[in-house]
Amino acid sequence: QVKLVESGGGSVQAGGSLRLSCAASGTTDCIDMSWYRQAPGKERDFVSGIARVGAPRYADSVKGRFTISQDNAKNTVYLQMNSLKPEDTAIYYCHGSCRNSWGAYSIYWGQGTQVTVSS
Question: How far apart, in whole angstroms, are the C-alpha atoms of residue 28 and residue 25?
């Protein structure tokens, strides 16, 4: 059973930093992993993504402040968040296209981790 588990959320003051991690288990390969976020009363939005090939992808709102990286050997993706703003407050979800036990790739979501930025 494929699972994505996020960690690293918390509370920080504006201008601070946090590093989120998402570890995939029960799979031998995730070909694309991304971060989404959902603020109260809003839709879930794309934040950043990284695939096996190609450049990392970022939402305009986080470009220059957030950096996504991955450790393929560990099937883990990281999101380094710097210069955090109150509007970054949200639940952050990990999203991955990962291989299941039948050899097919499916989409999986983590349970989410709360990020709160105070002014």
Answer: 8
105, 98 Cβ separation under 8 angstroms: yes
pLDDT, one tens digit for every residue, the chain (119 residues): 999 999 999 999 999 999 999 999 999 899 999 999 999 999 999 999 999 888 999 999 999 999 999 998 888 999 999 999 999 999 999 999 999 999 999 999 999 999 999 99
Residue 58's closest CA among 31, 85, 80?
80
Amino acid at site 103 = G
DSSP letter for 91, please. Answer: E
Between CA 114 and CA 95 the distance in angstroms is: 15
* Cα–Cα dist 86/29, whole Å: 35
Question: In angstroms, what is the C-alpha Rg of the chain?
Answer: 14
Contact 4, 14 (CB under 8 A): no
Contact 49, 99 (CB under 8 A): no
